[in-house]
Each structure stands twice: as C-alpha cells, then as structure tokens.
Amino acid sequence: MKLLIDFLGKKYLVKKKGKFSTKHGEVSVDSKNGKTKSHLGKDFYQIDANFSDILNKCKRGPQAVLLKDSALIAAFTGIGKNSKVVDAGTGSGWLAAYLAKIVFPKKIVSYEKRKEFIKIAKKNFELLGIKNVQIKNADVYSELNERNIDLLALDLPEPWKVDILRVKIGGYAVAYLPQMTQVVKFVNFAEEKGFLIEHVIENPIKEWKVKGDIARPKFQQLGHTAFLVFARRVE
Ligand SMILES: C[S@@+](CC[C@H](N)C(=O)[O-])C[C@H]1O[C@@H](n2cnc3c(N)ncnc32)[C@H](O)[C@@H]1O
C-alpha cells in the first residue's frame, strides 16, 4: 500500500497501483518512492504506507482509540511479545490492532457484543494485515473467561461491571473513559478490588505550524478524547 502526500500535506492511502485522482490532478502510483507530479503539474510524494499511516485511514464505527492514547497504554503497561492482552469492546478495532501488533505473534482476545462492529473491525484488521486478534462476540461484563491477564484494556461505558480480578498480580486494568464521573466510579471500584491507581491521565497533544516565520499552534486542534486510568493489581 502506498501513501500519497500532496504539496499541502494532505495524505491519501492508495491500495493499488495505477492512476489515482485527487483534486490537484491525477497521479500515477507505481512501485517507485519519492517525488512525483500530478498531470496538472502539482507536486506529490509517494512512499510506502506504514502501520500508523494505514491505521489512521481505517474506518471508524464507534469512537476509536487514537494512536496517541494507544501508544500511552502500551508504554505505561510495558506489554511485549509475551504479554497476555484482553481488550473490550472491540469497536472499530483500532486499539486491538495496535496491541496485537505489539504482542505479535501472540494472539490478543477482544470482546464485542455487537456484530455490526465486529464486521468493521475485521475489515480494518484485513487492511492492516493483522491476523492475531481473536474476537469474541460476547458480553464482557458477564462472559469474560481469560485469567492471568497482563493487560485488560476497557473501552466501554461501565468498566466497573467487568471482573478485573482476572488480571494477574502485577498486571493492569486500563479504562478509557470520556467522562470524569466515570473515572471517579472506576477508581473507587478498582481500589475496592485491591488495585493501585498508578495514573489518571488526560493526554492532549498540541500541534504547531512551523514554516518560515510562522511558528504558532495550529488553529485546528484535536479536542478531548478520553481520560486513561491505569489500575495495577498489587494483591
Ligand atoms: C468506544 S467503542 C470501542 C472502540 C475501540 N476501542 C477502538 O479503538 O476502535 C466501545 C465498544 O464497546 C462495545 N461494548 C459495550 N459494552 C460491551 C459489553 N458489555 N461487552 C462487549 N462489548 C461491549 C460497544 O458495542 C462498542 O463497540
């Protein structure tokens, strides 16, 4: 898969070689990388798309976890290729795909109760070449059956209904919650279960435009995504 970048920085994911239409003209996409021009003479760059390029172009059904937050979850929980990871709900599969890439070739398990979202996630996994996610079409509140989990990632409305004691001692239950009222409820719940709250984080990123004499925050910024609660089982 190729990534085309136009002279304004806009990115296009191109799935197959051949002519590709943009509003700045038609570009011939081939196996070569580097600078090219559209038939209207506009500059484009053609490069191989990497995992993050493709993920950023994947379909979003329900609200997906963005790379900035997935990366933080992976970094702060220290997961690696031997980690047992369970994710719920699968939704569009963005977080599941990111976590699966880290533990590859080990499989992760992802719970999703709605079949229509499983379809979207599967398509996204196919586009990304991710084959190590086992999706369970089940209600994680009552049907979670893995044990000794290193990371239980919970991106659903009521994580306090999940049996977080299936996390092993030393492992994490991480909740991704848009509302602070949910955060307070999850923190109380996790503490009652003997978890240590290692971090409650808001992870905003601010992009700047730096070009010539221009050096200022970009006018259009990503707004609030969600808070992250890192609860670690310690007893
Ligand atoms: C915000 S989306 C998850 C997005 C996903 N983390 C991503 O990065 O694409 C929440 C998902 O949880 C699912 N869900 C909600 N409650 C659930 C439950 N009890 N068991 C399984 N899935 C559930 C919803 O159907 C929805 O698809």
CATH fold annotation of the largest domain: Rossmann fold
| Gross CATH architecture of the largest domain | 3-Layer(aba) Sandwich
Cα gyration radius (Å): 20 Å
Low-confidence stretches: none
**What fraction of the residues are assigned to beta strands by DSSP?**
25-35%
SSE layout and pairings?
Elements: E1 2-6, E2 11-14, E3 18-22, E4 25-29, E5 34-37, E6 43-48, H1 51-56, H2 67-77, E7 85-88, H3 94-103, E8 108-111, H4 115-128, E9 133-136, H5 140-143, E10 149-154, E11 167-177, H6 180-192, E12 195-202, E13 208-211, E14 214-217, E15 227-233
Parallel strand pairs: 7-8, 7-10, 8-9, 10-11
Antiparallel strand pairs: 1-2, 1-6, 3-4, 5-6, 11-15, 12-15, 13-14
Helix pairs in contact: 2-3
The protein binds S-adenosylmethionine.
Please provide a written account of the structure.
- The chain is an alpha/beta fold and 235 residues long.
- The chain has two domains: 2-49, Roll (Vcp-like ATPase, Chain A, domain 2); 54-233, Vaccinia Virus protein VP39 (Rossmann fold).
- 25% of the residues lie in helices and 34% in strands.
- The protein has six helices and 15 strands.
- It has a seven-stranded mixed β-sheet, sandwiched between helices. A four-stranded antiparallel β-sheet has the order 2-1-6-5, with no helix packed on it.
- The N and C termini lie far apart (47 Å).
- The chain binds S-adenosylmethionine.
- Residues 62-65, 88-89, 91-95, 111-114, 117, 139-141, 155-156 line the site of S-adenosylmethionine.
